[in-house]
Design a protein that fits this description.
The chain has 400 residues and is an alpha/beta fold. It contains twelve helices and 13 strands.
Length: 400
């Protein structure tokens, strides 16, 4: 066939029929099919826009276009049931396909083996949903709820099994093993927004009875197109209505979805979501040790202050103690006794003095109170004497 085309191009004059390869329509179409089969890989990628998709007998027929050219395409019913994303009119798509050529009518089409929304379509949908939800305040910072400081039980919404799940569970064990994780398996890619919303709504209805304190929505890496599920408006409203704080950990650090904007806390990755939500047991233990030292210092300081105050009060109470008062009174009484003894006439008599009383019994303090011939009484320590005054002699007073 290639030789036929070369000969046709080489001469502008009508070709001679002698020596030309002869085809029937069927053999020509078979030759074309053979050339197409040799010239294309079994599978290829195609960036296009889906146009006028129509479902016929379970198969989806559509046209793929890039604005300059079009090609018909088909998704067989057996493959359509497996797809996570079904394109609608105007959707940008990335197609994994292969060429189909029907020899009976020389019809060419792309058989779609897999189809995903293109990045352009994903971002356009993201912007549309964001513009629709932003006026309602679903992204406002003042509606963000604080995360629990030491959550005892959390719900983890993600796919099972996955490497991201293994990393997250390991993070829980390493950071805060006291937290119980309630795993809620859900598909995290494709046209499954309704199923994910149903799981969230069921969880919300039982959140209190289950003792949950937070919800983590997580999906591991992949392309931005793989995160299209989390740009859905219905999912965003479910997360906004959830009664507990929501932490999102979706894709990579550079990926931002509508679910990230609605969540109370947006983490860069699934593992980072658990790091943000759970305390670090190493840091908490260090903090407890520091707190213990601080409390010991406070208590020791308080005890020392109370001891000083007690000693001060003890010093103030010591003079008021009954025993101390008795001792003081006993000493004062002894002093009074000694004073009384010193002033006692008997004590004077013991020292050799005598007490002289006049005729009328009064104490004689001066010779002026007596006359010769008076009878006086002399009191000694061991008795008394009656004496008659015969003579009175005065003693000259000492000069001042």
């Amino acid at each position: 066939m290639a030789e036929l085309l070369d000969r046709l191009d080489a001469s502008e004059s009508p070709p001679s029929l002698h020596g030309l390869h002869r085809y029937t329509v069927a053999t020509l179409n078979e030759a074309i099919a053979t050339l197409l089969g040799r010239g294309f890989a079994p599978r290829f990628l195609l960036e296009a826009t889906a146009s006028r998709p129509q479902l016929k007998k379970g198969h989806l027929w559509l046209t793929l276009t890039d604005g300059e050219a079009t090609v018909p395409a088909v998704i067989w019913s057996s493959q359509l049931r497996k797809l996570a994303f079904v394109p609608e009119d105007g959707d940008g798509v990335t197609v994994v396909g292969k060429l189909n050529f029907w020899t009976a009518r020389a019809a060419l089409s792309v058989q779609i083996l897999d189809v995903r929304p293109s990045l352009t379509a994903v971002m356009r949908r993201f912007e549309l949903v964001r513009a629709r939800l932003a006026p309602e305040g679903l992204f406002d910072q003042d509606r963000k709820r604080p995360l629990p400081p030491w959550p005892g039980r959390i719900a983890l919404l993600t796919s099972v099994p996955s490497s991201a799940l293994a990393d997250m569970l390991r993070t829980v064990r390493e950071r805060w093993p006291l937290t119980t994780v309630l795993l809620v398996p859900v598909p995290v890619q494709g046209a499954v927004e309704g199923r994910v919303c149903e799981a969230i709504e069921r969880l919300a209805a039982r959140a209190e009875s289950l003792g949950l304190e937070a919800l983590v929505v997580a999906r591991g890496g992949g392309s931005r197109e793989d995160l299209a599920l989390f740009d859905g408006e219905a999912l965003a409203r479910c997360l906004a209505a959830f009664p507990l704080p929501v932490v999102s950990g979706l894709g990579h650090e550079d990926d931002t979805t509508i679910a990230d904007l609605v969540a109370d806390y947006r983490a860069a990755t699934p593992t980072a979501a658990l790091v943000a939500l759970l305390p670090d047991q190493v840091a908490e233990r260090a903090g407890l040790r520091q707190l213990r030292r601080h409390l010991r210092q406070v208590v020791d300081g308080r005890l020392q202050a109370l001891r000083r105050q007690l000693l001060l009060l003890q010093a103030r109470l010591e003079p008021l103690h009954p025993r101390r008062r008795l001792d003081l009174e006993r000493r004062r009484l002894e002093q009074q006794r000694l004073l009384l003894r010193a002033l006692s006439p008997r004590h004077v008599l013991e020292r050799g003095f005598a007490l002289l009383r006049g005729p009328k019994g009064g104490v004689v303090r001066s010779i002026q109170a007596l006359r010769p011939g008076d009878t006086v009484s002399v009191q000694l320590l061991d008795g008394s004497l009656e004496l008659l005054v015969q003579h009175i002699h005065s003693v000259a007073a000492d000069p001042p």
